Amino acid sequence: MTHNSSTMSNFDDNPFADPFSEPSIQQATRNTTSGLEEYDPFSGKPPTQNVPTTQIGNAGNPPTYVQPTVGVTNQPAVVNPTPTPANPPAYTPSAQQQVTTAEFQRRQEELEKKAEELARKEEELKNAGAGAARQDNWPPLPSFCPVGPCFYQDINVDIPLEFQKIVRMLYYLWMFHVLMLMLNILGGLGMFIALADGATFGLAIVYFALFTPFSYVCWFRPIYKAFRSDSSFNFMVFFFVFSFQLIVSIINAIGIPSMGSCGWVTVGKAFSSGYTGLGVFLVLIATAASVVAAAMVYAIIWVGGRYQFDSKLHSRKYIRYYQFFGQ
């Protein structure tokens, strides 16, 4: 008991006494404060180093606990918008949007033509259903003529819209061919008067009398009916007769003497004989014959390509038909 009482006597009996009143703690606090007070950050002198004999870290400045704030704050959340460029890129319309007024007008005209064609075909079907036969209107002969028209021809009604251009071209080609035959008669008459070439003049009349009606009946009417009803037989008739007509036109452009044509050889004969005026007129006829031959070459190539395309298209349709229904 004596030992325990001597040991407990070393401690302070007052538990509520100030712990910083001890001499060692006060000495450490005084040295730390004096070191901070002597330091001047704006002076060039280094601070004095007072190293205390006994230091207790952060004894004079205990840490302060700050309770974090949890919950909704008074300031709302702000979202910064994405900055837009000051000068946006210029708008350039695409090629499909650049449709001019002329394009709209062209499409409108095509639609009007198509509507007119359908209206005419409907009227023709109504007349045919009612038993009214179509009256022949070609050739357009005068009323006092004893012979009336022999055929009905209306490209706008009979021919589909996509083929009307080529049919009109062939019709104009036939008319130009007839005009060339008429000029050939006049050229033959000049050869008969100047050079006493009666064979050329006589054959020129025969060619005009034969080729004018037969060319219309034998190759224009078949191609007209071929495009009207999509007839392969009429296409074949056209190719056969038109090929023969093309060969005759090339011979007419050459102008073999005494063969009934005033071509380039006949032109040379007229100039060599000293008939300059006749030679100039024959140049006009030979040029017309050459244009007719060139146009016929173009026409037979175009129609042949179209016929091959349609044949392949029909063959594909038939193949698909048999593949579908043959199973």
TrEMBL record:
It comes from the Eukaryota. The lineage of its organism: Eukaryota, Metazoa, Ecdysozoa, Arthropoda, Crustacea. Keywords: Coiled coil, Membrane, Transmembrane, Transmembrane helix, Transport. Residues 1-70 are annotated as: Disordered. The keyword Zinc does not apply. Residues 101-131 form a coiled coil. It is a multi-pass membrane protein. It is found in: Membrane. The keyword Transmembrane applies. Belongs to the SCAMP family. Residues 1-12, 23-35, 46-58 have a biased composition (Polar residues). It comes from Scylla paramamosain (Mud crab). GO terms for biological process: protein transport. The chain crosses the membrane at residues 171-195, 201-220, 232-255, 275-303. GO terms for cellular component: recycling endosome membrane; trans-Golgi network membrane. This is Secretory carrier-associated membrane protein. Pfam families: SCAMP.
